[in-house]
Write a structure and sequence with these properties.
9 helices; 5-stranded mixed sheet; 31% helix
Amino acid sequence: MSSSSDALISRVQSLVSTYADVLESVRALLPQRLREPVPVPRHVVQQRPGFSEGRETRFQAELVKRGLVKKDGEEEDEEEVKADAEMEVASDEDTVEDDDEMRVGRRGPTDCNFGQNTTATVASPLYNCTGTILTGPQFASRAANTICSSCAAGDVTCTTNCCTPITEGWSCVCPADLTGNICTSPIPYTCPPTLTYPDLSSCASPPCVLFEPTDSVNFTFTVTCSMASPLHVVISSTSSGYTDGTFQYVTGSGDTFAYSYSWGYNQLFRFKFYNWFHPSDTSQTYYIPLQPTSLAFIGGIEFGLPLNLSDVIAGGYVNGTDQYAAGGRLYFEGAVRNPGYNAMVGLNTNTSFKHFIDFQSPEPRTSNALLSDSSGPPLSTGALVGIVVAGFVVLVSVVNYCIKERRRTARG
């Protein structure tokens, strides 16, 4: 055991010696400047544990020789101290300027998306109106805008909707229909239609207006878009378009609606009659161009669709006929809804006008196209499943009974 331990120790010592020789050879290959001690920054020299007094003294003397530290009792030259201080201050100022440049670089004018990177000053302040930043012209465009300091004590309505002036710093000022730190989020809005003809308002307290199945009717609508909450600006119509004093808009109306995106395509109004036998049937769906769009979306024009009711009543899914007058009524819906990708940015499509057309006697009826050739209606899927399950249960019961009878006979 002793001989094996001695051999192991001898082996380890040999490896250590070899490793030390390798390190010394590598050190000899290094340039002279890399073999010297690493300079220690002035005023941060600390005694390293394990240093003998002789080595520490030599180390300290080397630092003094290199001018990295002063001798004991030697005072620093006032000019050097002053120069060092000025360099540190200059360095700090450069750092602050670099930080400012980085911020401006990250949030320059092009980084506000469709907004404007605007700097506030005492002469040209910005205004923070419940989180919406406005320029001076935008703030002045709406008479209802109020400075918070002018709100009377206890006036909750005023303090909830007031604006605070900003006289320094920069911010992204957004068009009225966009929000977010860099103006990237559209503000949702709705465009509810109003049926102006025929006048079906009496249907709220029947009887409704009654039509003949052969009548021709020019269904006429208007559309008035609006945001859920009033805007902090007023959109005015000028000879050059719509503006709030800072931004130009495709269309807009007062403090209720603004739209700054380019259309790029015709906007459409969908008018659809419902086939309750086949809800996916679009054979009686019509699309009406909204032109000019800038007026159509703020209720500035009426648009209509002339139809003969007999053509609608006779319609059907694929080769079907007379499927639209369910229960003697025609059901229809109208809404701003472009097919495919042609949707307005920010539009909530859940707003539509839904109503029905009633007829004088005799009322039109749907055909029996969905009925079977027999006198009764066809079986539903649920009924068929029930019959199959019941038959399976009866079969299992019969088989089980036969097995028991066979066993009883065998015992007897």
